[in-house]
């Protein structure tokens, strides 16, 4: 039975999903339906945690300060209501869950920004060193022997 559920879940997963990590500033474009009208609303904030769910159950939580009040939303990554997830910036963080941001406000909430491509290099798992071949001994040339 679990294989049937897993196959059904894989069918409803989106093909392209950005790699979200805590400390990213993201803009989540979500479809909102009001009556018979439909519009796209943008929620921009910092990713404070990503759930370890797999497939359809994968979620992420975004936090922003709106008019002095902290607002958090948890989104399923593969939800059909999410149109697009844009990664705007990356901040340097050293923890997997950023729940400590809930207690901070104002200048204390600032984090150091790093370029997106640099973040991927800094926090990538180190690769095993490749075995290099020893350079062959140089053969003397005709000029050196003369």
Describe the model.
It is built from 3 helices and 6 strands; from the N terminus they run αββββββαα. By secondary structure, the chain is mainly beta. The chain has one domain: SH3 type barrels. A 6-stranded antiparallel sheet has the order 4-3-2-1-5-6. It starts with a helix and ends with a helix. The mean pLDDT is 82.
Detail the topology: elements first, then pairings.
Layout lengths: L1 H10 L12 E11 L2 E14 L8 E8 L2 E8 L5 E10 L21 E2 L1 H7 L19 H4 L1
Antiparallel strand pairs: 1-2, 1-5, 2-3, 3-4, 5-6
Beta strand count: 6
Strand content: 35-45%
Mean pLDDT: 82
The gyration radius over C-alpha positions equals: 24 Å
Our count of domains comes out at 1
Distance between the termini: 82 Å
Low-confidence stretches: none
Number of helices, counting only DSSP H or I runs of 4 residues or more: 3
Q: How much helical structure, as a percent, in the residues?
A: 10-25%
In the CATH hierarchy, what is the architecture at level 2? Roll
Entry keywords:
146 residues, mainly beta, SH3 type barrels, six-stranded antiparallel beta sheet, 3 helices, 6 strands, 14% helix, extended
């Amino acid at each position: 039975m679990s294989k049937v559920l897993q196959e059904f879940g894989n069918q409803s997963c989106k093909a392209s999903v950005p790699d979200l990590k805590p400390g990213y500033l993201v803009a989540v474009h979500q479809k909102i339906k009001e009556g018979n009208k439909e519009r796209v609303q943008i929620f921009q904030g910092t990713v404070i945690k990503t759930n370890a769910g797999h497939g359809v159950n994968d979620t992420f939580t975004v936090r922003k300060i709106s008019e002095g009040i902290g607002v958090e939303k948890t989104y399923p990554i593969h939800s059909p209501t999410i149109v697009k997830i844009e990664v705007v910036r990356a901040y340097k963080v050293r923890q997997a869950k950023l729940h400590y941001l809930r207690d901070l406000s104002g200048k204390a909430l600032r984090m150091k920004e790093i370029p997106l491509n640099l973040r991927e290099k800094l926090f990538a798992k180190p690769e095993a060193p490749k075995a290099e071949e020893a350079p062959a001994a140089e053969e003397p040339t005709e000029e050196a022997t003369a």
